[in-house]
Amino acid sequence: MSIFIIAEIGINHNGDLAIAKKLIDVAAIAGADAVKFQKRTVGVVYTKEELDRPREHPWGTTNRELKERLEFGKADYDEIDRYCKSKNLLWSASAWDVQSQEFLRQYDLKFNKVASAMLTNMPLLEKIAEEGRRTFISTGMSTYEEVDAAVALFRKKNCPFELMHTVSTYPCPDEEVNLLVIPKLRERYGCKVGYSGHEGGIAISYAAAALGAASLERHITLNRAMFGTDQAASVEPIGFMQLCGAVRKIQVALGDGVKKMSPAELAVRKKLRGV
Length: 275
Description:
TIM Barrel; 12 helices; about 20% strand; about 280 residues; alpha/beta
């Protein structure tokens, strides 16, 4: 089965639907399977104190103004749904609260995503798992015991899931990526394991593919210099196109692990060895 590539738009659209659509275009041209956003109910996810905190940004001077700016509403998601369908792209969003997950249910989404920050939010995980949709679970900033609990919940609900190795720093230093956790997670949980990367560049994503990652998620941006906390850990359009092409090629090259000779190699053998 082909590696499932998710272009994480997240909040890199900066609340601008036109930017979101340009990023959807990038994902479609690159050959990604899906794009993903983030959905929050601002007054639920953040405390009043946090929202009232002063913060300078292009749309105001408080954290509340920024958080509200970054959230798309129903009309926006209706257009995202329509536009992704026109590009033959799947889409979803990682909900940060139960109300947001309920909001997403009005769309015929083919998969859910649990963000690393939400892995221990059991009421939210219950809400997601009861839908029975394929779910990608990021494991950043989590202990094995915390992952154990999430896996147990999804198995109890008979909800198909795939873990994603993640390190939740933005951007993540190369020496902290620890890709060898991918096979460790696969062995411990007996499930498919993907990779959600936040490092600079694309070489490490190639290595994840070579280690057998079943899925690959990378943040994308139009320009890493744009305003936003995730932009520096994102991949620009040309890089993402290179990434998708290389990952598809790597998967083909991995083969099935069975030592055998192709008809072409047999012909060379006969020519060079005479047998």
